[in-house]
Amino acid sequence: MTSHLLLDGVSKRFSNDHAPALDAVTLDVAAGSCTAILGPSGSGKSTILRVMAGLDPVTSGQVLVDGVDVAGLAPERRGMGMVFQRPLLFPHLSVLDNVAFADRVSGVPRAVARVNAELYLDMVQLGGYGRRSVRELSGGQEQRVAIARALAARPRVLLLDEPFSALDPELRSDMHALIDDIRSALSPTIVLVTHDRDEASAVADRIAVLHEGELLQHDTVDGVYTRPASLRVARLMGGLNEVPGIIVDGAHVSALGRVRLDAGRDVSDGPATLVVRQEAVGVRALGGDAFGADAFGRDAAAGDVVGKVTGIRHLGPRRLLTIRFGAAGAEGAAGTADVELNAELPPGQGVAVGSRVAVTLPPAAVSTVRA
């Protein structure tokens, strides 16, 4: 159940569309890994999964499984298992016979197919549900059966098309844990389509960001969040501060002053937007103790810049500060446009709207993107 999947220059164009649904996408999914495909509605997420499965033919390019191009094969010969947003179970069959369906179609004796089906039902925590009608199941249980049915076919690659989007948050969290259990037990190669960045982060090793059929970035979860390839990726991932400015001599210059950039980043001179995650911003109240993500042991060479707290928003137990710098701020660089940063604070720290705070941007947490 572990295979290497490679899309090589895959394009898909529907006859009634002016723009391609997929535009020369190259995506490499390592054997045994999980890649989440993330993007807004209409970005091509479901299309790329249907192309992998063979439900839609490619216009050009290759779909390679373990080095063999399967683009010309029928869906049932590709070794792909697919779970849809709606479970699509057979209502006239029991839970057990739904899961045993692939084995029965392949000619496996009924008794053997049922034993195998019980094993996969146990894996999705539905042991003992085999005799039930699928009409008796909750939405979360239906999706567990759909996953068990897909796994029972022993696919080379498991494709998940937003299978948890209709579930409530608690059930979705349970399903994420289930995927972790399945990965531990079987090490399958998984491609998950989702519009939820938190789900992508919870389940996947890597995230592929799609927009209008173009693959913008395919990287580790940390890489996509902290080193976005473009502003579009940064905005899709959320939780990032954007500061326009220019790079001069290895530092980003803006209303925040000079922010030294890590040597491993792109530090060539020219216009660039500095991006840094909210939780990476170090903050200390002037006249008080330091607090924030990088309060202790921060790099003094990065320097501090003073701003004014203009807003506080509560996010459950956390608080999100809005801090303003620049001509209208407390002590920002005179003659520059205002800049605002958001910074997360841990519970129990005392700061109010109007407070003056010093902010540190650790070089290792800062990235830049070009226009």
For the record, the CATH architecture of the largest domain stands as 3-Layer(aba) Sandwich
Q: CATH superfamily membership of the largest domain, which one?
A: P-loop containing nucleotide triphosphate hydrolases
Question: How much strand content do the residues show?
Answer: 25-35%
Uncertain ranges? 288-302, 327-336
Order of helices and strands: EEEHEEEHHHHEHEHEEHHEEEEEEEEEEE
Textual characterization of the structure:
Its EC number is 7.6.2.9. GO terms for molecular function: ABC-type ferric iron transporter activity; ABC-type quaternary ammonium compound transporting activity; ATP binding; ATP hydrolysis activity. It comes from Marisediminicola antarctica. It holds the Pfam family ABC_tran. It is an enzyme of class 7 (translocase). α4 crosses α5. Strands 6-7-8-3-9-10 form a 6-stranded mixed beta sheet, with helices on both faces. The chain has a 6-stranded antiparallel beta sheet with strand order 16-15-20-17-18-19, with no helix packed on it. About 7% of the residues have low confidence. It folds into 2 domains: 222 residues, Rossmann fold, CATH 3.40.50; 132 residues, OB fold (Dihydrolipoamide Acetyltransferase, E2P) (Beta Barrel). The chain is α+β, with helices and mostly antiparallel strands. The two termini are 42 Å apart.
What order do the helices and strands come in, and which of them pair?
Layout: E1 5-12, E2 22-29, E3 34-38, H1 45-53, E4 60-65, E5 68-69, E6 80-83, H2 95-99, H3 101-105, H4 110-123, H5 139-152, E7 157-161, H6 169-186, E8 189-194, H7 197-203, E9 206-211, E10 214-220, H8 221-226, H9 231-237, E11 240-248, E12 251-254, E13 257-260, E14 270-277, E15 282-285, E16 290-292, E17 304-315, E18 318-325, E19 339-345, E20 356-360, E21 366-369
Helix pairs in contact: 4-5
Protein name: ABC-type quaternary amine transporter
Organism: Marisediminicola antarctica
GO molecular function, one term: ATP binding
